[in-house]
């Protein structure tokens, strides 16, 4: 081989090796979560209904990471219909198959099966969220994602003494998916009546702060399905 091309090849290989070492150095931590989707009874406004929720809670669990981290979320669907999960506000560069829109980047996760998402927090920092991306199942399947600054980086403001995650959602007395399915069959409008608003799953939330508290980060998520019509 011509010595000139040999030298060029060696330079290219050297650059690739250095780049690989650099990315290894800046690579963040890897986290693993299990999301179990299952029906559970909830009582509110003097009536009880069954809802599909994650890990038995409404809203679902909070994911906590640092900028640059990667999260693997294994979603086990123990419900009665297919569901996907979308990572709202996460860019997912070169990773569209884990983005979650139903019938766009993947088929729904069928009942009795599971699917593992790879969520890459490449540039995000602050508060984003995850939610179901299948019909109106988002009403009960959602939660916050807290993305802290990368390790070794400082906040853009005084380091907070604490934080509060606040998830605002809507409460419907009936099964929202069934109501929407019925409206699709008879051609009527989908339900617009919200019977209650929720704060972290309840009708109200009390936040108690220590007297010495000076800086609090409030992480607010608007998870109302009607908001996304």
TrEMBL record:
The keyword Ribonucleoprotein does not apply. The keyword Transmembrane applies. One of its GO terms (molecular function) is copper ion binding. Coiled coil: none annotated. Pfam families: Cu-oxidase_3 (PF07732). The chain crosses the membrane at residues 7-23. It comes from the Eukaryota. Keywords: Membrane, Transmembrane, Transmembrane helix. Residues 38-149 form the Plastocyanin-like domain. This is Plastocyanin-like domain-containing protein. It comes from Carya illinoinensis (Pecan).
